[in-house]
Write a structure and sequence with these properties.
Blueprint: E1 6-12, E2 17-20, E3 24-25, E4 42-44, E5 50-55, H1 58-63, H2 66-74, E6 78-83, H3 96-114, E7 117-120, H4 132-145, E8 149-152, H5 160-176, E9 192-196, E10 209-212, H6 217-224, H7 238-253, E11 258-262
Parallel strand pairs: 1-10, 5-6, 5-8, 6-7, 8-9
Antiparallel strand pairs: 1-2, 1-3, 2-4, 9-11, 10-11
Helix pairs in contact: 3-6, 4-5
Length: 275
């Protein structure tokens, strides 16, 4: 008996047009595995005109969330990658201050390669605080850069910084959209929130959206290569994992290369109709 799941498929195609289906039976009786659902409509999708990745560490921002940002920039939109810390404690052999500088430089170089902006908040690696100061700091950057879509960590993570980032972002989006909260920049409402497919955030992660990243995959992987830990220097082969994952997710969505995203629970039943 074939399992039945609910999947929304998002494909960025030529000219910045996208196709997004309503929820449908992916493994249904009339649907072959690996084939996108029928009845897909095309149109201009404003959700991906300005994408901001918000991650605990620079590596997470680029490895797990950088491809959607690269897609936005590739099709003439805007992209930014915000890291709440520099991930400066990520090396067992390089001093903390030196490694933090390396991470910042890598993030700036990688962002330039995909046509995006690298942004940093310097909370201590491993000690990102879940407090109002952090939430308003992220709120202010959301208002300043005005993303239509934010990609961040899923809460089902064994990493405390990732769980902290998830909680900070959810409240920051809320604060950013409230006109009654007076900050330097006016209120800005984020249209869509997605959670990234991160090996460290896998508990209860269920993909419901697939993004075709074929057009930017090589450039995105090249940008990730700017980081000192990309090829397993710190013990985990990020290059093999995320490169292979793009192929695997592409197989499931009938794209050459893809990333999987997860919508907030309250949005998973929403059917989106494009013009």
């Amino acid at each position: 008996m074939s399992p039945t799941t609910r999947r929304g498929f998002l494909a960025l195609t030529s000219g910045a047009a996208v196709a997004l289906s309503a929820a449908t039976d992916f493994w249904g009786a009339d649907q072959l595995p690996g084939q996108p659902p029928s009845g897909t409509t095309g149109g201009q999708n404003k959700d991906f005109s300005n994408v901001m990745a918000i991650a605990a560490h620079p590596g997470d921002a680029f490895f797990a969330m950088g491809a959607p940002v690269a897609m936005a920039a590739h099709f003439g939109g805007q992209g930014s990658l915000l890291s709440l810390s520099l991930g400066e404690r990520g090396s067992a052999t390089i001093p903390v201050e030196q490694y933090g500088s390396m991470q910042r430089e890598a993030g700036q170089k990688a962002a330039a390669l995909i046509g995006a902006k690298a942004l940093f908040l310097q909370y201590p690696d491993g000690e990102i605080p879940v407090n109002e100061e952090a939430k308003f700091a992220v709120c202010d950057l959301i208002r300043q850069h005005k993303p239509s879509t934010i990609v961040t960590h899923w809460k089902g993570s064994w990493h405390k910084d990732h769980r902290a980032c998830h909680d900070i972002v959810e409240d920051a989006i809320f604060y950013a959209g409230l006109p009654s909260i007076d900050r330097k920049d006016p209120a800005h409402g984020v249209r869509r929130l997605f959670f990234a497919d991160n090996w460290e955030d896998a508990k209860d992660f269920v993909a419901d959206t697939y993004l075709d990243i074929t057009a930017v995959c090589d450039r995105w992987l090249e940008a990730c290569g700017a980081f000192p830990m990309w090829r397993g220097e710190n013990g985990f082969r990020y290059n093999d994992y995320y490169g292979s994952l793009a192929i695997g997710r592409g197989c499931l969505s009938n794209f050459k290369r893809a990333v999987a995203l997860m919508s907030p629970e309250e949005e998973r039943v929403r059917h989106i109709q494009l013009p």
